[in-house]
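Q: Hi! New to this. If I give you a protein sequence and the SMILES for pyridoxal-5'-phosphate, can you show me the bound structure?
A: Yes, paste them in.
Q: Okay, here:
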Amino acid sequence: MAPFDFRKNKSMSSPDTLQIPTDLLPRDGRFGSGPSKIRGEQITALVADAPTYLGTSHRQATVRSKVGEVRDGLSALFNLPEGYEVLLGNGGTTCFWDAATFHLIAEQSQHLSFGEFSSKFASAAKEAPHIKDPSIITSEVGTHPTAVAEEGVDLYALTHNETSTGVMMPIVRPAGATGLVAVDATSGAGGLMVDANEFDCYYFAPQKSFSSDGGLWLALCSPAAIERIESLAASGRWTPAFFDLKITLDNSRLNQTYNTPALATIHLLASQIKWMNENGGLSFSSGRSRTSAEILYSWAEASDFATPFVTNPADRSNVVGTIDFSDDIDATVIAKVLRANGVVDTDPYRKLGRNQLRVAMFPSIDSEDVASLCACINWIVGNL
Ligand SMILES: *Cc1c(COP(=O)(O)O)cnc(C)c1O
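A: Thanks. Here is the predicted structure of the protein with pyridoxal-5'-phosphate bound:
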């Protein structure tokens, strides 16, 4: 037997120097849940259009037609029924929550709160002095509650995919409810199937399934949601212009935003929507995520050191997978080794505090790369 070589042993087990064999590595190492992977073709298309597009006025035809492409493309992708409209504004989803407290919630909202993001809209509604305290239904992290029709509630706030825990929920109108159904689909939109008849407002930001950058919000609004916006705007309720959804509506109808948007973000978004629509629409894009999810969860279930965090298989998200590790393995070390090898952002949601990795499986992420990631994790655990 060869004499014990301390240096060799150290280089084999220190996370900083563990080198994953290149044939195991995914072709693209981006697995972050937002901002997330942007496809090379989107960048190429942006670069090609740059000389006549970037650095030009958002009030002129070139940019406005790109915004029009986004609005029409989303209507097609989500098969929006007659009368639904696509609104967009600056500030991302977090800004939209505040806008919703002014111009979507009339008196009282009900929130399903089952993680960091869904709880944030509930807090925004609770803080707003001009509406009643919301009704909040919570459930354990790793599960989701169910909305129930409630007297006095005029808006039901659902979350398609709770990005902090990796739980997805079906979008259905609560039985017997008369209020609007507003869905935070920031991480779910484009990666999960949805029926537009089941919502009045399906809102998101483009840095997740839509492979663009942050800072913008988009909302698919039913005629009932538009009517609510118009009546609250006419009600005399004081509203800062930035959160005024009537101003947003008027600008969106002209393919503009109230103030200057990031033009690159809109271009990248338009490319992604086009890619989805040209390849078969939402069944194509959500199908890619579903295939990736099947790979990730079946790997974890077969593993003797990893398990899906979400117990109910139906609740396990197709777009953001959360995987727990057994106590003898430190997930932060795995994430660190992966990062040192160019495979990034698999860290769990910071406030969840579990021995876990979180893997984005948005439509842009190739399923073969998810399979490679699983192989890399197996290799790291075997070599630590
Ligand atoms: C990322 C995310 C948000 C926050 O989006 P911002 O654009 O950063 O405000 C909100 N809700 C969900 C479900 C998310 O995944």
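A: Residues 34, 92-94, 117, 159, 163, 184, 186-187, 205, 214 surround pyridoxal-5'-phosphate (CB under 6 Å). Let me know if you'd like me to explain how to read the tokens.
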